[in-house]
Amino acid sequence: MPQPGVLVVEDEDALATLLTWNLEKEGYAVRLAVDGEEALMMVDEQLPDLVLLDWMLPKVAGIEVCRRLRARPDARNIPIIMMTARSEESDRIRGLDTGADDYVTKPFSTTELMARVRAVLRRIRPALAEDTLNYGDIELDKVAHRVRRGGREIHLGPTEYRLLDHLMQFPGRVFSREQLLDAVWGSDVYVEARTVDVHIGRLRKAINADGDVDLIRTVRSAGYALDQRG
Ligand code: CA
Q: Phi and psi for 143 in degrees, rounded to 5?
């Protein structure tokens, strides 16, 4: 699990774009569905970690999407945040009855919504919603996208950042190059396994710049791990 996956279900272009932009900025992997039918198809393809669900949707209404997800054993526990318009005030109670975890009333501030997203994820899947990850003297701030080692700021490229983020979520665990490719580059992208070595090399160079202990362990013919015994 590289980044928490958020499925945004919203038929209003401007809002969908705004939400996608803000969620990606916070490090979520975002997919967008523009109607209820597409939303259900996309859940079939890949289970999201959270659904942001508009109430008024073409084809299948938000409340029906919510109801159907709650009826599926594999999707039952996926947190759902409903987005409703003020005129649908009474509906929003029904929304919660149907199993939504939270709701926001349009128009809402994206700052507030992002806070709700973090809160819901933290409640349901604590490891996904941590704002900062720590390992040894490395601190990764997922909100500010900053990495520090022993208080010193470390500048990483986007791929090195995602690699470190992934390794820090599972310290000690050994990942093969293929697993890292899937987690960091995505399974639908064709990249050679050797590319992983190149980026691990860059990541090492950046985090060990001051002659610090190398925390990335190379496991011969297996892969890499973030490990104190590095
Ligand atoms: Ca709508």
A: -80, -50
How would you classify the pairing of strands 102-106 and 29-33? unpaired
Which residues lie closer than 8 Å to 221 by C-beta, 6 or more apart?
none
pLDDT tens for each residue of the chain, 230 residues long:
457 899 999 999 999 999 999 999 988 999 999 999 999 999 999 889 999 999 889 999 998 999 999 888 788 888 999 998 866 666 555 556 767 888 888 889 999 999 999 888 877 766 666 778 888 899 999 888 899 999 899 999 999 999 999 899 888 888 999 889 988 887 777 888 889 999 999 999 999 987 888 999 998 888 999 987 64
pTM: predicted TM-score of the whole model, two decimal places: 0.57
**Rounded to the nearest whole angstrom, what is the distance from the C-alpha of residue 87 to the centroid of ligand 1?**
12
- Supply the DSSP symbol for 175: B
- Measured in Å, residue 11 CA sits from the centre of ligand 1 at 5
167: tokens are: 């390794």
Residues less than 5 Å from ion ligand 1, measured at CB? 11, 54, 56
For the chain, which domains are there? 5-129 (3.40.50.2300), 132-226 (1.10.10.10)
CA of 69 to the centre of ligand 1 (A): 19
Cα(45) to centroid of ligand 1, in Å?
23
Gap from CA of 3 to ligand 1 centroid (Å): 27
Collapsed DSSP state (helix, strand, coil) of residue 85? strand
